[in-house]
Structure formats: structure tokens, C-alpha cells
Amino acid sequence: MLEKTGECRLLSVSSILGYGFPESSLAAGLARNPHFIGVDGGSTDPGAFYLGSGECLNSRKAMKRDLRLMLLGGVPRRIPIVIGTCGGAGAEPHLQVVADLAREIAREEGLTFRMALIHADQDRSKVSSWLGEGRINTLRNVPPLTATTVQRSSRIVGMMGAEPFMKALGEGAHVVLAARASDAASWAGCAMSRGLPPAPSWYAGKMLECGTASATPKGHDCLIATVRPDHLEVEPTNPARRCTPHSVATHSLHENASPTIHEEPGGVLDATRCEFTAVSERAVRVSGMQWRTRDYDVKLEGAEFIGFRAITICGTRDPILISQIDSYLQTVKDDVQSRASGFGVSPEKYHLVFHVYGKDGVMGAAEPIKQITSHELGIVVEVVAPDEEDAKAVLAIARVVIPKVDFPGRLCKSGNMAFPFSPSDIAVGPTYRFSIFHVVKPDSPYSMFPIEYEEVH
Amino acid sequence: MPKLSELAKVCKSKNAGPFEVTIDIMFDTKEIFDKVLKSGVLCEQLFAKLYDVNVKDVLFTPYPAALAFKGTIPRRVSSGDLGDTDVYGAQQHAPMLDVEIPI
Description:
Chain A is of the alpha+beta class and 457 residues long. Chain A has helices at 23-30, 49-53, 60-74, 92-109, 124-132, 147-152, 163-170, 185-193, 198-208, 245-251, 319-322, 325-342, 388-401, and strands at residues 8-12, 36-42, 81-88, 113-118, 136-138, 153-159, 175-178, 223-228, 231-236, 261-264, 267-270, 275-278, 284-287, 290-293, 298-316, 351-357, 377-385, 426-440, 451-456.
């Protein structure tokens, strides 16, 4: 067990491992004698590709640079280092990449430490049986889960709460690398393992997981939070940044559905009555947050393969074509369909989408402005098909059809589109969607997240 | 009548998870925030109308501590799925800019 203290100082080095931070900010943070050093490792924000494919969001080089500085700062001083959602999506391949980096750095720098790896991958058959037992619930604005969707998932992770972190720290880990975790959970776990109550611990986590996003100017930099029983104080360690009551309050809006109600595993953090007070030019005290426990649930995230993508980019400067863009693109679509069917790729085997920039490329069907006023339009032609050769073949034939299709009043008889590149066809590779974003009632906060310990030297 | 683009300090959108987009409108002073709040123009119904979504699926929260309003709406297409146009949801704020506030 860790020693209980009246306050807990938590040093977050950046917003995501691999985003970087100034070395001087880490040094200034270390001078404050933090009890823990950490960083969040990921997010669902860049899309389902990372969970589905197992690729890391950030490069190995960038993650290794950040991790090396953290280990060199923490290990010799016996300050535990805690990282949640390793590698971007926090599935097993991502966790293993970061664990390998830690081992490499230990060898290169002659460091020894006890490392905990907390896993979060969830077996499809287990998720199916939870579904059958009625233990899975659907979140707001997410379609209900079906057994077929579970079976089609490429990979599923559970999002751990604070308890697995507390267990790993309590069992003597110096470096805790976790797979998918609630962004604030690693920090909440650190502070609670020192005896601090959940409300300020979770609130601190909400601040720390984003580095200095709660400071002004914002940026990827180090933030220190001091958690005490009824409040916390936050301060960027870089003197070029400061936290103000407004900058900290504003941060509650960031990527959350609600600024005041934050649902976490095992409870709800309620910030409705929070007060923000400046304690110096650069530090802010937050008090008044409340934690209400509720039935423990764990979010599941699953990614499903939707196909291989191929795209091409082109543009038109022809006003006659622009005036009839919708009917023209329908003609293109029909022509592509007939030619693709001719070489054996029927329309149910692919999706063909035109992203028309200058019309509704950014907002799609939600675009309220229907009239085009631009003198040129940019088009991204997108084909997605389960078979990679099909995707490439349909895209290639679309690239042939789109400049050549006739339309009423056509004067530009040599080609309807300007292509900026040769080759014009771009194979993007596999693509995924989030298919599972649901919550499950676990047997316990630990049951879905096995911990392995390893002596690294 | 002034538009939100003339009154707000920040008007932005971003994913709140892959199935929702959240729109934040923030003001410089408590005076303007209070006037906008009192006008009642910003509400669930406005978000539902501007983004053509069901009003019961909108989560709307005034947040005085940050002089801000937040509206969270369902995505038509989840982030990165087929037909999505904005993986991060960062460019869905524009319909808010022209909203007129009678103050």
C-alpha cells in the first residue's frame, strides 16, 4: 500500500504520449516533488482505424522520446509513472508497443523498475454472452448492439476505471502501462491510492489528461495538480503559460457532451457547483465538485472493418457543369455502375461517394446552404469495398468516367475535371467504423482488466 | 439584431465521442452571457432545427462558470464511418454563426 498523504501532487507531461513537451517544463515539474508522473496515451477522436488495425496513433520515435524523459525523471527518484490508453487506442498491440519502448529505454539507460501491464482486450464470445445475459446497455445516440455486430468486430476493448491502477500501484509497480482506460482514471487512481477522495481526484484527472489544454495559451505541455480532500489546484509548470479561473472552467466543455455531468466507471462527477478561484497569477483552485457512486459499468469500444478505401481528387472550373453538379454526378455514378458490373464488380460490392467541396463537402446532408456560389468545385471521389482489388478497380473506372461523361450544354469536350496528380488514384488501405460503444456491468472493476508484473532491467 | 458571430468570443464544434458532436458558444463578459441567456434563443429546439435532428436527442447546457452554452447533437454518420465528412467534428459550428439574438 502507498502512504496516505494530506495532498497528492500529480504531474502530467502532455496531452498524449508522443505529442511532446519542453524538457524545461518537466524539470520545473520535478522540482515540485510530484507523487506521480503520467500522461494519457490516447483517444477515440482520430477514428476507429487505430483500434481496428492495431496501428499506433503516434510514431514510435515520438512516444519513445516522451517516455524516455518520463522514465529518466521518475525512476531514479522512485516516483511512479502511470500511462493510460497506451499507444492511441489502448488495445493489446498498442500496449505491447509502449511496453517494448519501456524495455528498450531501460536497457539503453540502465534503469530497473517493476512494471505493470494492465490489459483491456475483450473476447468476442464473452461480449456475446454478456449481451445474451442482458448486461450490456446502449448509450445516448448510439444504435443498440446486436450479436452480429459483436461477431463482426475486429477488436473490442473495455475502458477501465481507477481501480486497476490502484491495484497495480498498491502491489508495488513503479511503472504502470495500461491499455484502454477512461482518460481521467489513471490520475484518479493515483490520487485515491494516496487516500484522497474520489471527487477532487477525478476532477484532477479531467484536467491532467489534456496536458495544458486548461491553460492559456493552450498547448502540449506539463501541468501539475495538487489534490487535497476538498479541492484541487492546477498550474502549468512552464512559466510562459498560466491557468486562470476562466481557462480552467472553460476546459470542462472540452470533448464532453455535458460540461457539468461526467459519467465514469462506478460514479458520476458532478461539476455543477464548482467554484474556480485564482490562488496566484498562474494557479487556480477548483472546489465544490461532487462524486456520486452508482452501479459500476465499463464502456466497451469495438471497431469493425468496413473495407479498403481508394480515392482520387479532382476539380472543375466549368460553370455549366457546376450549375448541374447533382445530375452530372448521378450520371457518373450510373456509368461507373454499368462499367464495373461489366468487369464483375456489382454495385452491392462497393460504395461510391463524391465529397463535393464548394458545395457540401464539410457538412454533407446537414449543410443548410443549398445554392453554390463558388466558381470552382473540388471533388474527392471515394470508393470503399471489402475486396481491395475491387476498390481499386472501381476507383480507376470512376477516374476514367468522371472527366468524360457528357452533360447538357457541355463545351469542355476534352475533359470535365482537372486532376492535380499523376498517378491520380490513391489506395488508402483498410478502414474501420466504431461498431460498439456500449456499457457492460462487469463482475467487478478488476475482472475485465488482468494485470501482469515484470521486473524490467 | 446582432448575430452570434458578432457577440461570441468562441463558437466551435468537436466530437463528444464518435456518435455525437458538441457545439460550444462562449462569451467575453457576464453581461453578454446573461443577455444571451435571457433572450432564450439558445435552447434544445434551436439546435434541433439548425441541424435537423430530433429535439429529444439534443443535450443543451448553459454553463455560467465559463460564460458558455453547450449543445450536443447526434451525428448523422458516426466518426469515420462511410459517408462521414468530418472525423473530428471540428467544422460543424457554422450554422450557429448567423443566429440572431434580440439584445
